[in-house]
Amino acid sequence: MGEMTRCARGIALAIGVALALFTAGCGGDDDKSGDRSPVSGESRSADAGDSLSPLIVSAVQPAVPFKGSAGKYLVSYELRLFNATPLTLTPSRVSISTPDGAVVRKLGRKDIAAALALPSTRSGVRQLGEAQRATLYLTLDFEDRSDIPDRLVHRIAVTNERLAGGRAVSAAASVKVAKDFDVPVLGPPLQAGRGYIAADSCCFSERHRRALLAIGNGQWLAQRFAVDWEQIDSSRRFVKRGGDPAKPADYTIYGQRAIAAADAKVVQVIDGLRDQTPGALPQGVTLPEADGNAVVARLDDGLYMLYAHLQRGSIKVKKGDEIKRGDLIGLVGNSGNTSAPHLHFHVMDGPSALTSEGVPYVIDEFATRGRLRSTAVFDKYENTTTPFDIVRFDGDADNDDELPLDLTVDDFK
Ligand SMILES: [Zn+2]
Hints:
Layout: H1 3-13, H2 15-24, E1 55-59, E2 66-67, E3 73-83, E4 90-97, E5 103-107, H3 109-115, E6 116-117, E7 133-142, E8 151-159, E9 167-169, E10 173-176, E11 185-186, E12 193-199, E13 213-215, E14 218-220, E15 227-231, E16 257-259, E17 264-270, E18 293-299, E19 304-310, E20 322-323, E21 328-331, E22 343-348, E23 362-363, E24 366-372, H4 375-381, E25 390-392, E26 398-399, E27 408-412
Parallel strand pairs: 11-23
Antiparallel strand pairs: 1-3, 2-3, 3-7, 4-5, 4-8, 6-7, 8-9, 8-10, 12-15, 12-27, 13-14, 15-22, 16-21, 17-18, 17-20, 18-19, 19-22, 24-25, 24-26, 24-27
């Protein structure tokens, strides 16, 4: 099998030899195009086959573009990084370009650290140890849809003093951009009202966007584009004035009507779970109970909507029902793995809220009035009667076919 096999053995036999190989390269592969493995049928040659790769970079899903409520087109996707060396590698540069080499974006160390996550640490990761894997969460914005390339090509530089020149660059990793995929155009998931808060929405909050779950022999990110809908009252409070933050019914959002965001067929209903006491995440909630009382419904295009944390006994639909846009689904509650009443809503590519992949969608009509200052402020005052400051929104408040972005204050008609 030639040079590459001998290189791989070098790593196994002696780290010192392997380091020499990282620094010296591995000699060229002869032209083997057309060679296929008699075992797997896979091609036995790779485009970048003339040196060892300290860092292996792989695409996860195609990136699906959509319009966000700030008016720009977004692609938000992930790469998996694997440190194939015995060294500690520091990612120092991510270059993202079009297939013909035009630079789309460059990330330096600080941006990379903000985007790089481990299971224990959802941001702020600066180094990868021996054989460590991590996920790089990327979000790019474009003024016009026509500016979005069909593919995005990534090269990641890593540093370690024992690499040749102290640095190495990964082979190119290409992510397909599914520009021809029509994201679902939905109505609001909640009744008409003012002051809904799109908590933990795309793209830089971590609780949904980076909620990568290992289940079976796979990793899944069903909540990739989820929103936790909460609501402020006319005095900008989550918990009503004079209310008790430990009582679900004293939250502005509690009891609001969750409605069908589109025509759909109900495929799963979970009911019977009581409201949790707000203030902290409950102990002992099992994975199947995490969504609380919940409804999953299949859209005409084969995608699925999830409504989670509804009030016990409030769900008005049953499995097999064909529902129409605007139909009452149930009332917002605080069941499942939740620390405050809210509606968790997302769209996914399968019926399981755990083993599916989150897909972006847009809402056809809503108005964005502003934004809460930060996730830290949100967390500080979520379970209080303290009024929120709202950063007023400068742009066009009326949104057509856009995804409500993180912490926006939105009105539904
Ligand atoms: Zn949620």
